[in-house]
Amino acid sequence: MGLLTYACALFALQLIQLPGFLGVSWDSWWTYDGISGPAFWGLINPEWSLCNKGRRQSPVNLEPQRLLFDPNLRPLHIDKHRISGTIANTGHSIIFTVDNDTIYNSYGSISSMSSSSLNNMQISNQIPVNLTGGPLSYRYRFHEIHIHYGLHDQFGSEHSVEGYTFPAEIQIFGYNSQLYTNYSDAVYRAQGIVAVSVLLQLGDLSNPELRMLTDQLDKIRFGGDETPVKRLSVRGLLPDTEHYMTYEGSTTSPSCHETVTWIVLNKPIYITKQQLHALRRLMQGAPDHPKAPLGNNFRPPQPLLHRPVRTNIDFRSKQPGKACPTMYKEVHYKANTWKQH
Length: 341
Prior knowledge:
23% strand; 13-stranded mixed β-sheet; CA_dom_sf; single chain; 15 strands; carbonate dehydratase activity; zinc ion binding; two-stranded parallel sheet; alpha+beta; CA_dom; Carbonic_anhydrase_a-class
């Protein structure tokens, strides 16, 4: 960190501590760039110290040659049935939140939702969508979806593979419903959260469930806007694969809690240029003060340090008489951009 940048951070901290700044909400303060960006989340607010000091932070760059095959990893299962909820422009991201008994998003805030939406969420009685299997030891209840994307095609995803970034990334969050009562409780606790990462690649044909979300973007162009979404299939957002990579990490926004089991699927789904254009038209602020475009809402990759990244992608032995899967030194995992042809 340069001296000038550090001085700016100290100046910002002094400003925030002045009486005139006491009314500033931390939730509205942080952004994805500049002196309120990721490099300063943990420096400015002591309650977010994990963002700078944590050693199990997310996202990460996944290096194929460092993957460890784990034969005990099971296929991931997400319930098929459809659900209803609300898609909102929070000023930080696009978030779809299910209508159920949990009213807190992963930022720990309900400020972006109207009172009518909160009432609807509290009285909703729909069957929850559960996430089980994979590396999970517990049952997790689906809570929300985040969409991260770039203002240019070369970047936008939070996770990368061998340094390659995708134009966008969907993150499906659930909380441990066997140990905790809601998301806002689980996000602070061990084994509290699961996050399924679905990388998005440019293509001519889009995922149908993704279209259900992007068709609503004109209604949530500004920060604070929200609109209902009916009968969304969370499972329908997944690519056709049982293969994934998994590691222990954190939420990718403040307070960067290290309570997340990440599952990064091995294939992308596809998003069209038109859908990306619609995303890039969204703004952070209200119509009278739109601020900046909402895009580029991704945190840079964090050090993996000594964390293992396990996978269920197996090299099957082709030698006669060999029944067990084997890893050979002369073979290794390799990244694929999954361009749509």
